[in-house]
Write a structure and sequence with these properties.
With 170 residues, the chain is mainly alpha-helical. The protein has helices spanning 21-35, 70-91, 100-119, 122-130, 133-140, 144-149, 151-162, and strands spanning 8-9, 12-13, 48-49, 55-57, 61-62. The protein starts with 7 loop residues before the first strand and ends in an 8-residue tail after the last helix.
């Protein structure tokens, strides 16, 4: 928290302004009320246009003017990967028994497709589960996903086929 509002350490105010933690919490509640937010039926924040027309998310984060930092993008990516892993655990619990490069291929598919579309890859996933990696790789090359994602698809198919990382990340 900025020093003007009072950074807290161990529950005590440490700012020169001396604002108690309760005042910091009040200030944040007021900013949230003023800025507003848009959430979906599941309670997740959704982007919206503020009265000035800027693409905004959360409580007044102007994405057009400010964007997000590298650290914020990393946190979002990590959260998305954790959600994808949880979905894979539900949809295909055997995926964790694969070698790491092939596990990454399955995770990448979940990440880009989502659970409902990945479920349509059931025959391919069955080949992966059975250890027929060449068959799974060949099947992937015949999908719309493969045609749509370009070099990403070629890398993922090669990783599925060989169980090896691509040279650019070794």
């Amino acid at each position: 928290m900025c020093a003007a509002l009072g950074a807290t350490s161990g529950g005590r105010s440490t700012s020169s302004a001396g604002a108690p933690a309760a005042d910091v919490a009040r200030a944040l509640r007021l900013l949230k009320r003023h800025e507003g937010e848009r959430r979906d039926a599941r309670g997740r924040h959704r982007p919206y246009r503020c009265p000035a027309g800027a693409l905004t998310i959360g409580w007044g984060r102007n994405l057009d003017a400010k964007g997000i930092s590298e650290a914020e993008a990393e946190v979002l990516l990590w959260n998305d990967v954790q959600e994808a892993c949880a979905e894979l655990d539900r949809l295909a619990p055997w995926w964790r028994g694969l070698d790491v490069p092939r596990r990454v291929v399955v995770l990448d598919l979940m990440f880009v497709l989502g659970a409902s579309k990945l479920a349509r890859f059931a025959p391919t996933l069955a080949l992966v589960q059975a250890g027929d990696y060449a068959g799974a790789a060949a099947r992937l090359t015949r999908t719309k996903w493969y045609r749509d994602v370009g070099a990403r698809g070629r890398r993922m198919v090669e990783m599925m086929r060989t169980g090896r990382w691509p040279a650019e990340v070794r």
